[in-house]
Specification:
Elements (H helix, E strand, L loop, with lengths): L4 E3 L12 E3 L2 E3 L12 E3 L2 E3 L12 E3 L2 E3 L2 E3 L7 E3 L7 E3 L7 E3 L42 E2 L18 E2 L1 H6 L9 H10 L6
Parallel strand pairs: 1-3, 2-4, 3-5, 4-6, 5-7, 6-9, 8-10, 9-11, 12-13
Pfam families: Pentapeptide, Pentapeptide_4
Length: 198
């Protein structure tokens, strides 16, 4: 085992504020309560790691993968993720509204009940994501891929859904009053609600 490949370590309450990590791999590591403020990662991989109660304030991540990780009550104020994968990662009781996501893969991510109001999620891949009861009011979801996403009870009032891919279940289960949609979505919405368009 090298510093670049770490498995099963208890790294809880560690302090890595302001550090820069490149091409490091962590598997099943515990980062609970760690200080990662102003932390920068590039090309790193975290698999099944626990970031509960960690502080990632103003952290920057480029081409980094967080796969199957847990973020519970994690501070993500001002965090920025670009070209990252969060495949199967879950966020519980995290404040995400000031987090910037650019070209991020959120496939199978757990965001049930998350407050995502007004966030720019345009063009992101949210396939099969759990967005049950999430608050997406006024969110920018243009061109987002929500195929298979669980949207029961999701609040999407006044969200911009133009060009977004949504399944019939999502169009029926989410609250969409005032949402901006394009013609294909309008037709899909009508069909999902049993309407005939002639």
């Amino acid at each position: 085992m090298t510093d670049d490949e770490i498995t099963g370590e208890d790294l809880a309450d560690g302090v890595w504020a302001g550090e820069r990590w490149e091409r490091r791999t962590f598997t099943r590591c515990d980062f609970t309560g760690a200080d990662f403020s102003r932390w920068e990662t590039r090309g790193c991989t975290f698999t099944e790691c626990d970031f509960s109660r960690a502080d990632l304030t103003d952290s920057r991540h480029l081409a980094t993968a967080f796969r199957g990780c847990t973020f519970r009550r994690t501070v993500l104020t001002g965090a920025e993720l670009r070209q990252c994968s969060l495949l199967g990662t879950s966020f519980v009781d995290c404040r995400l509204r000031s987090t910037r996501l650019d070209e991020v893969d959120l496939t199978l991510v757990g965001l049930g009940g998350a407050d995502l109001r007004g966030m720019d999620l345009s063009g992101l891949r949210l396939r099969e994501a759990n967005l049950v009861d999430a608050d997406l009011r006024r969110a920018d979801l243009r061109e987002a891929d929500l195929s298979g996403a669980r949207l029961q009870g999701a609040r999407m009032e006044e969200a911009d859904l133009r060009g977004a891919r949504l399944d019939a279940d999502g169009l029926v289960g989410a609250r969409l009053v005032g949402a901006r949609i394009d013609l294909p979505t309008a037709l899909a919405f009508a069909a999902a609600h049993g309407l005939r368009v002639d």
